[in-house]
Amino acid sequence: MEEFENEPPRKTSWLRFSIRSLLFLTLLVAVFLAGRYGNRHVFPSQLSGAWEATLPKGFVRTVTVTHLEEDRFLLTSGGSVFNGVYQWQGDRLVVVQPDDKRMKGLAWKWNDGSMTLIGEPAGTPTGSSYLGTKMERLEEQEKEK
């Protein structure tokens, strides 16, 4: 018994636990950031082409997205308030030169292959709100039919 009483107290290995915790935390952060980056990174080929826009009131329009340069795209549709030059910012397509000057503030959010209108000018200058308009690839629509 005397042998155990004279021994210095054992140091706990909190450092080992701490390193494991840090490695695990680093792994979680890396997975989280990879997921966020993976959803944001969109290649021009994913945006370019024909899209079908379904407006909140059920109207459907065909929209063409054309890659101009780097992160800029042109949206065109017959008589559409969405027409203009857009810039890719994070996970959004934001209008930088609208054809209709009243439509500054349009922003589309990328959602795994589709886009949803999440931003529009304050006060609905055209008289209607288009928030929630969803654009899906026209080719994907035809495959489902």
TrEMBL record:
Transmembrane region(s): 17-35
Origin superkingdom: Bacteria
Ranges of Basic and acidic residues composition bias in the record: 134-145
Annotated stretches, region: Disordered: 119-145
Keyword list, A-Z: Membrane, Transmembrane, Transmembrane helix
Protein name: Uncharacterized protein
